[in-house]
Design brief:
Length: 250
């Protein structure tokens, strides 16, 4: 009788544990949505975390610039000027894939004129699993364009002049986007034979006859989506080539 009672007691205990488990998941089984709630660009995130966060639609949006982002931009990508102000800009939240087959969190600051178009483009790139290595604000690199290009960073707004000139770049107005910058460099050959490559580490990727990852050409989905949305591609320019660059047509 004692043995039967022990067995009965164990069965009851196991049943109770199962019922508790059904009501409340074990610790650690809930997806971590912190990278999404805090929007930590550069982090990877799981499909289950996206669902728990509220779904894909919540992960692709353009909003006014949050205070924490605006503070990071000061003296770096944003310098006080008479041409572009906080209210002219928008903060994009997007997701993107890379060749590692993981979902990455990205963010970008752009002009409000192109914000909705960019959200649509990046959503279509995401749906197609188009590879973008990273999408961090230039402020991560102290707004140094050479450095962020060497890290293959994709970005938009950064208040600066065109290299070697005093002319404001379209990036200064948030109207130009650079994608996978290391593999799609700026290239110019001067009349004296001098070659300019930006970033300086990307000379091998100036040979557009080669096949390599992240390459943008006229058959590329990125090219097709941006040009369809009204952007000019720097790879089509005559005096130089800027394969990473898409800017809004005048």
């Amino acid at each position: 009788m004692k043995k039967k009672a022990v067995i009965t007691g164990l069965c009851a205990l196991l049943l109770a544990v199962c019922l508790v488990s059904m009501r409340s998941p074990l610790a650690g089984t809930e997806p971590d949505v912190t990278p999404l709630t805090e929007w930590q660009a550069g982090q990877t995130v799981s499909p289950s975390a996206i669902t728990a966060f509220g779904g894909l639609e919540k992960c692709f949006a353009a909003d006014t610039i949050p205070d924490r982002v605006w503070q990071r931009m000061q003296g770096k990508s944003y310098i006080d000027n008479p041409y572009i102000h906080r209210e002219d800009l928008r903060h994009l939240r997007v997701l993107h894939w890379d060749y590692d087959q993981q979902i990455h969190i990205g963010e970008m600051v752009c002009n409000k004129r192109i914000a909705d178009r960019l959200v649509s483009i990046f959503r279509q790139l995401y749906d197609a699993k188009y590879p973008i290595q990273q999408m961090l604000l230039p402020d991560v690199y102290d707004a140094d364009d050479e450095t962020q290009m060497r890290h293959n960073n994709s970005s938009c707004f950064c208040y600066r002049v065109v290299a070697g000139t005093k002319v404001l770049s379209k990036h200064s107005l948030g109207l130009a986007v650079d994608i996978n910058t290391l593999y799609n460099p700026y290239y110019k050959k001067k009349a004296n034979g001098t070659i300019i490559v930006q970033p300086a580490t990307a000379l091998q990727y100036c040979n557009r006859k080669m096949k390599f990852r992240y390459k943008i050409d006229r058959q590329d989905l990125c090219y097709r989506l941006f040009t369809k949305a009204g952007f000019k591609w720097g790879g089509s320019w005559k005096s130089c080539k800027d394969y990473q660059h898409f800017e809004l047509k005048d």
